[in-house]
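1st attempt posting a full record on here, be nice pls
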Amino acid sequence: ETEVEEENNVKEETEVEEETNVEEENNVKEETEVEEETTIEEETEVEEETNVEEETEVEEETEVEEETEVEEENNVKEETEVEETRTNLTEQQFHPDLEHNLTIQIP
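the predicted structure (as tokens):
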């Protein structure tokens, strides 16, 4: 009976060790999966933040470029209008029928 008891004890110890090993392996697998998921989530968050920052920068640059273009166009229009006005005033100022040319201040 003692041999049988010893064999049973050894079997039980072996089973307990195997179960413990399987539990430890499962725990390691779960921890690894959780770490991988966390890493993926963190990388995704960083990528999303980077994308948002880049999109914002591009939008801001585009707005500044558009505002600059509009300002330049407006400046060119104003300069053209001023030149046309000067030309018209100059032509009127030196009209050949006048005995004395008029003095007109041009802005």
